[in-house]
Amino acid sequence: MELSSVHSTAETRGKTAMRRYACSRPVSLALADELISSRNTFFDFGCGHGGDVKYLRSLKVNATGWDPFHLPNNPIVPADIVNLGFVLNVIEDPNERNETLRVAFNLARKLLIVSVRVEHGLDSTAEFNDGIITSKGTFQKIYAQADFKEYVESVLSRKVHVAGIGVV
What is the per-residue pLDDT across 89-100, written as a single tens digit (0 to 9) for each? Predict the structure, then answer.
């Protein structure tokens, strides 16, 4: 699988990756709902530093991940469950954002977990495209929950299940 551009702004986007010492909220919700288990494969598409992958491996889940800045040499592979966690909101080009969502969907054999930031509490320096440039110099597309659900449904032509705020 290949994205149309190998993120010319991957380094800037890489600044948004959090170091996690526990799993992310979307992965936590999927674990609580027993959607992720050792019976399924898991791929984190845009995994940042790989915190969710490490956490799931500690639970004996067959988990791998890829990130254009932090783990660009890892393979992009299909899996039963694909996580696209807090990725779409850092892509400043709407066409690339849509393509990234479609690629992630096509990698998922059973379930795609998609999450974005929905809060408005970011310090911004300027508006850019359909989002903002933060005080750290990174792009953020902030979604209202209903807009996010509608966006995912329109790009994928599928009904989605809302698992939590910012998670479908």
Answer: 888 899 999 999
Strand 131-134 with 139-140, pairing? antiparallel
Which of 117, 90, 98 shows the shortest CA–CA distance to 25? 117
The first and second tokens of residue 78, run together, are: 């299909």
CATH classification for the domain delimited by 22-117, as one of 3.30.1540.10, 2.40.160.60, 3.40.50.150, 3.40.630.30 = 3.40.50.150
pLDDT tens digits for range 45-82: 999 889 999 999 999 999 999 998 889 999 999 999 99
* pLDDT at residue 58 in the model: 95
Burial class (CB in 10 A: 0-12, 13-18, 19+), 109: middle
146 phi, psi to nearest 5 deg: -65, -40
pTM, to two decimals: 0.82
